[in-house]
Structures are given as structure tokens and as C-alpha cells.
Structure prediction request, 144 residues.
Amino acid sequence: MPPRKRDTDEISDITAPDFTPEQLADFREGVRLFNSARYWHAHEAWEAAWLPMGDGPSDDGEIFIRALIQLASGLHLKRVGRYKGARNQLRKAGDKFAVIPIYFMGLDTASLRVFTDFQARHFFDGDWVCRMEFQRDRWDGTSV
Prediction:
């Protein structure tokens, strides 16, 4: 059973999820796939990290993982010409990124928010690529 989906107005303080080693591997794989512009596969990897999350307050970070899933899904849909679905996914992702701290889980989420907004507003030929770079050591102090 997937975790409870939080609404953006429920989030006041968000902490990084306490991932298992498998979830962390899926999260990192999602970043790698996203950076390779393999958006559908990134979506699948992040979903694998998201699905085992729980429903407690310590799982509020699920909203960030869901934003990544929706960003990747939106970019995939945009690429295949399903623009209505793409806009919907990108707008949902943007709403979620808006409640996430500027740096979260080692990623520059402010840049992700700007990129997501741009993608939701601009539909034209060509692929705009966004790379996720870890900005600092992992949130628990170990290297990424």
C-alpha cells in the first residue's frame, strides 16, 4: 500500500525520509536516469523508493519524492506529445516543490522548481535538459 499522499497545505516542516538502503539506491538511480533524460525510467525508480514509505509525520518527505515522480512523468509525457497530461503533471510537481526547502536531500530544489515552471509554460520542439547535481553531502552526513 502506498504512503498517504500529503497536500501541500499540510506541510509545515519537512525532513528527509529515513530510506532503507534499497530505497536510497532507487532514489540515486532515479537521479542518474533523470540526468540521462530517461524520464520514464527515473519515474519508475523514484516510485520504487516512494511506495514503501509510511504514513507518519516522519514520512512527510514523500511529497518531495512525489514531486520528482511527477516532474519525470511530465517530461516523459511532453516528449511523447501528450501535452495536457504533461502540463498537469508539471503543475502538480511545481506546487509540491514550492513547499520544499531550497536544498533538500542534497538537491537544489529551487532550480528544480524554476525548471519545472519553465517546462509547464513552454511547449515547443526540442528537449531542454535539466541535471540534478547533489549540492552537498547526503542529509545524514555521509558522502553521496
